[in-house]
Amino acid sequence: MTLEQTVDVLEKIAAAYHSFEVTEKRIILWHEFLEPHDMELVNKNLRRHIESKPFPPAISDLVKPDEDYEREYVPLGEIDLLGE
């Protein structure tokens, strides 16, 4: 992610959560951790977070894939729970 994209993410968080402030230190820190990540993933996770949480996200909420959404669907009848 670029620095501009990081600032955009932080501004979205601030718009959604009035207690979240965008500061120079926060921009620098967040960019350090967001830079190696894909903008689409970060925005997807931010959207999910805003839709479901009443508090601002941590960096970790935005950078790791949501395993529940990433898993392939397997019908329950096809799962071999006993290893037989």
TrEMBL record:
Protein name: Loader and inhibitor of phage G40P
